[in-house]
């Protein structure tokens, strides 16, 4: 059971009930009709990252789907929440990469996304037994991490939201959905 494809998705939901706000976030992300099983953070060897629109075509209602999920909620008016999934994919596609989950308060989408990418790159670096300093490894022009002369592609999917002014639950999710077909 090694996934062949992955796609990123994200969503936000607001409701007076926390569970319903989560359900609405799943609907917004396009994955509410599936039974999600949360898994840890490995990007499978030789897996392909595909667009959300393409990935959703592989899903069926009621299907058990494995996913890496970041989730955050608030009912505090005007509080900024974010959920982010970062990925670090090694150049050698036969090697596995990493996915990271990050959930934060007070961070913009950009801040949360960059942090999630750094987490994934750091986890990958430790498997390569390489010292990693995200500030020194970032190449702004090419937007890639360089880890011990190995080029690593990083990306993220992030959803932020501002807590509802009336105190409704506001939930954000970001997810990496694993596809086996």
UniProtKB/TrEMBL annotation:
It comes from the Bacteria. GO terms for biological process: L-arginine catabolic process. GO terms for molecular function: arginine decarboxylase activity. Its EC number is 4.1.1.19. Its cofactor is pyruvate. Pfam families: PvlArgDC (PF01862). Keywords: Decarboxylase, Lyase, Pyruvate. It catalyses: L-arginine + H(+) = agmatine + CO2. Belongs to the pyruvoyl-dependent arginine decarboxylase family. PANTHER family: PYRUVOYL-DEPENDENT ARGININE DECARBOXYLASE (PTHR40438:SF1). This is Pyruvoyl-dependent arginine decarboxylase AaxB. It comes from Paracidobacterium acidisoli. The lineage of its organism: Bacteria, Pseudomonadati, Acidobacteriota, Terriglobia, Terriglobales.
């Amino acid at each position: 059971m090694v996934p062949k494809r992955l796609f990123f998705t994200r969503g936000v939901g607001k409701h007076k009930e926390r569970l319903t706000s989560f359900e609405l976030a799943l609907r917004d992300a396009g994955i509410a009709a599936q039974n999600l099983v949360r898994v840890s953070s490995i990007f499978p060897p030789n897996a392909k990252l595909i667009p959300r629109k393409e990935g959703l075509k592989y899903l069926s209602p009621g299907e058990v789907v494995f996913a890496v999920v970041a989730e955050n909620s608030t009912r505090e008016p005007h509080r900024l929440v974010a959920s982010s999934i970062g990925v670090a994919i090694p150049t050698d596609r036969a090697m596995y990469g990493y996915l990271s989950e990050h959930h934060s308060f007070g961070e913009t989408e950009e801040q949360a996304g960059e942090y999630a990418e750094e987490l994934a790159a750091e986890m990958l670096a430790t498997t390569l037994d390489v010292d990693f300093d995200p500030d020194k490894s970032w190449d702004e022009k090419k937007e890639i991490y360089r880890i011990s002369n190995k080029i690593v592609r990083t990306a993220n999917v992030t959803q932020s939201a501002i807590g509802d002014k009336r105190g409704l639950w506001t939930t954000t999710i970001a997810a990496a959905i694993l596809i086996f077909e």
